[in-house]
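Sample log: Delta-aminolevulinic acid dehydratase.
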Amino acid sequence: MASSSFVSFVNVVGIKSLKSDFQTPTSIGGFIKQKPRVVLVKAAAESESGNEWAIKKTQMSDAQCEAAVVAGNAPPAPPVPPLPASPPGTPLVSPLPLSRRPRRNRRSPVFRAAFQETTLSPANFVYPLFIHEGEEDTPIGAMPGCYRLGWRHGLVEEVARARDVGVNSIVLFPKVPDALKSPTGDEAYNENGLVPRTIRLLKDKYPDLIIYTDVALDPYSSDGHDGIVREDGVIMNDETVHQLCKQAVAQARAGADVVSPSDMMDGRIGAIRAALDAEGFSHVSIMSYTAKYASSFYGPFREALDSNPRFGDKKTYQMNPGNYREALIETREDESEGADILLVKPGLPYLDIIRLLRDNSSLPIAAYQVSGEYSMIKAGGVLKMIDEEKVMLESLMCLRRAGADIILTYFALQAARSLCGEKR
């Protein structure tokens, strides 16, 4: 039990105007000893955590409190703490002649929080979700914790969990049955296909949910490429854009809020914008995959959707990882064609590109923390090489610091729970 001792001290007042408030005075040592109507009390309370000083509240008026201070009788306060001792052997040196010491603003958690330049919130996350036609949720081997979700059940439950911790934006990626795939990817614009059906279901249950969609042919193509493949292996640009326009309109008609062309065909942003506007969907936004690199970090994603190219690679339409200035060319084109959001993919290995777009465009910037990034952090955590949660949050903070307004990340639910302090 905490114990406390209380020591009364007599308030000394020598102001004539307050004399009527006190008993008959007696003079001692040149001061006026009076019996006040209200006694101010100092409390030195001792508790389990150590000594605590407190001043017991009195009923003195403001004028009486001020008069006591003017007379040199301020209430006592805790003593000035001693300077902390240095460890034995610390050298005695003269202080460095520094007018500025940046560490002063880092010296406590409160200071660090007050001056933090970049913040991270569940509202910054877009949650990529894989869907399929089945009833059960199928685990994805290369992406621990991720599943192909049944569109009628598992998906709805996962969206509910995300919304509970402040993640209200998702992006859908479908696992399409092989029997529905074709060289021209016609299933991409089937208005009763997996993605349009899913959008309608989610919008019926969660009208304020922000739904992003992927606009590309690779999940629907029997060749596994983002566009129509000519017999000599060339990806046909303009014919592919024609298909993408129909896909975007079908998604918008189902209720998509943001369509996201990830194909990297030339001119597709302007064509999709015109197609949406012509069909009465001028309110639907376009998030362009502006700087999508031909990266080796996409492997687990392609396993999730079974969308590996049947031959070749995607280097004739996705960007060269060695290129920096080329991202500015894509940025200017997408801006001029009507993009609403510019995206960089992958995320963490391309922080310089995120900053490049941030410094050269006033549009919102998105970053995609791709499957390879996610799986590496997960694997490092499982092997106890890193602290998974701390590395996860640091990686997301770095993407924000580089300039990303929103982050597409498979960590969205886990990170939001961590930020909200929820125990998993």
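Observation: The chain has two domains: 3-70, 122-419.
Observation: The radius of gyration is 33 Å.
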